[in-house]
Amino acid sequence: MSQGGLTRRRGAGIAQDNNDEQSSSRVASPAPKENAYDRTPETGREVGENGHIVAYDPRDMSESAERSKQPKLTLMEEVLLLGLKDKQGYLSFWNDNISYALRGCIVIELAFRGKISMQKDSSRRRFPLADRVIEVIDEGQTGEVLLDEALKMMKSSEKMSVSSWIDLMSGETWNLMKIGYQLKQVRERLAKGLVDKGILRTEKRNFLLFDMATHPVVDSGAKDEIRKRVRNICSNRTVVLPPSQFLPAELDFRYLRTIAMVCASYAANVLENALVTMGHETRERAFAHVDELLAEYSQYPFAKRQAGTQGIGANLSQAVTDEVEKNKDRELQLEVVAACLSVFTRLDSLL
């Protein structure tokens, strides 16, 4: 693993994928709860003059409950949004890192949501983090198409390591028997999800010989909030993360999630898009600070920061330590997060 972290800091990536529908797993089952209009659970009622009774699918209700506990945007969406040109609505054509980084974000997001963890095996510590086997611990749907698709694959397949899953979902494999694990059209599907959430809109642009769907930003407040959080982590001596719909106050691991987003943006070569307003020296200090974050959080237990190396984020280690202490039963999930960050540190050598 490179101690200096990533060196390719600048550039951003192409977005030229087409829409792809995921088939949901609504297969008939003998269990009564799988019926299309199961009325065993509590029935929803519309408040009105006639008091109409409305039938509902309990799985839809559980998805809504899941969404209500989570931030408005996933890690993948935040990284993609940072990389998009605001008015043009597409990624730079010279980025070859973002696709791989986005798959890593899917694994991190599933771990933060308590869906996957490292396999509970004392012998796992003999292996590097990225080579430890992960398993599904909660197969309930998240309501996010890409997350549910990845979770379904992990549940139905043999157990594999973090680095193996990121490789397979990115299509980085010579094993033709496992090519079906590749998650396709991720960037376009994420963009369409952001359209549904009111952050982007869809347009068609002509690029000389072909037309391409683009997704300009319509809700600049969402992207501004992400930029502000990145600059907060990368340049402030004391980091304070005000609650918002993108980072609710009751959310677990608010600081660690933000650190993971910053490191993933760095690995995806889109971090500089949030730092363009900084002077050259300040920006270079910010990049050096992210190198330190990658070194600190790409191992578990998380390493202790050397005091005062950049004078940035002096409270981060303690804030993350407090979050970990409040969630001691989730250490195996945090190992997955650290393993993904360790893959990010050697992303250049993998691509």
Q: How does this structure look, described?
A:
- By secondary structure, the protein is mainly α.
- It is built from twelve helices and six strands.
- The protein has helices at 58-69, 75-83, 98-112, 145-156, 162-170, 186-196, 220-235, 254-267, 280-297, 316-326, 331-345, 347-350; strands at 44-45, 53-54, 116-118, 134-136, 203-207, 210-214.
- A two-stranded antiparallel ribbon has the order 1-2. The chain has a two-stranded antiparallel ribbon with strand order 3-4. It has a two-stranded antiparallel ribbon with strand order 5-6.
- A hairpin with a 2-residue loop joins strand 5 and strand 6 (210-214).
- The longest helix has 18 residues, at 280-297.
- The protein starts with 43 loop residues before the first strand and ends with a helix.
- The model is unreliable at 1-5 and 8-41 (pLDDT under 50).
Give the topology, please:
Blueprint: E1 44-45, E2 53-54, H1 58-69, H2 75-83, H3 98-112, E3 116-118, E4 134-136, H4 145-156, H5 162-170, H6 186-196, E5 203-207, E6 210-214, H7 220-235, H8 254-267, H9 280-297, H10 316-326, H11 331-345, H12 347-350
Antiparallel strand pairs: 1-2, 3-4, 5-6
Helix pairs in contact: 2-3, 2-6, 2-8, 3-4, 3-5, 3-8, 3-11, 7-8, 8-9, 8-11
Structural class: mainly alpha
Overall number of strands: 6
Number of helices: 12
Distance between the termini: 15 Å
Beta-strand content bin: 5-15%
Residue-averaged pLDDT: 83
Biggest sheet: strand arrangement? 1-2
The helicity comes to 40-55%
Principal-axis shape: globular
**Major beta sheet, specifics?**
2 strands, antiparallel
Low-confidence stretches: 1-5, 8-41
Using the CA coordinates, give the radius of gyration: 21 Å
Order of helices and strands: EEHHHEEHHHEEHHHHHH
